[in-house]
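task queued by scheduler; priority normal; single chain, no ligands, no partner chains; default sampling; output format set to structure tokens
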Amino acid sequence: MWPIPVLDHQFVSIDFSPEALVCSWMEISQNKSAPLVLRAYKRFSLQNLELEKLILFNPTIIRHSISSFLQEHNLSNAFVSFALQGPFLGEQFIAMPTSTPHVADFGSVHKARSLLWEYRYLYSNDQGQCIFYVYTIPRFIVLQYELLAITTQCNLINVMPRTMALLSAYKNIFGAAFRRSQLGLDMVRCNNNIEQLITIDSLNRMVNFAGTCNKSERIHYAAASGLFYSTKER
């Protein structure tokens, strides 16, 4: 038998968007001031259509960027999650009469063999309707990222939209005090734009940045935190 390498309990998130590839290394913090600590963070600007509409037009450069981050911090055995943001990603908020719908209640989306899809119950509104976040992604897009993980030799455990990661980050900012009713009020106030709800101050309660915090990178920090917690919620 071939020896199986021991996997570390280290976690790396990679946030893909047309303008940048962002790598983050997070761990559970030993400092009680925040539950997570950001060990390393690097933003790779994408200016030559390396990644367009979520399609990897230059996987060699993307792979090299990811590999350089993993090698620089000795993270070859870390668990890795991908967050995706781009036009091929279908996202919508749907109102349902119940918080426990059947798959068929989501219409024809569950029959589309070319798509992968998932939903998450968020909150109930004043009319008694249950609001769900639903996303779809073409299977060929997911296959590209799976092949990227294979060629990069990283331990990919999760691929999800950035919005899903941000929803997880919002929930874990509040911890045991999280309430769907408050999420509902906040989402209505910002017209369901979850990015507006996560501030740098709220992130500071969840992540110890060890002096590396950059306010302009707020959404990427939040996505990394959400990806980390999403692996614990599965």
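post-processing summary
- The first strand starts at residue 11 and ends at 17.
- The radius of gyration is 18 Å.
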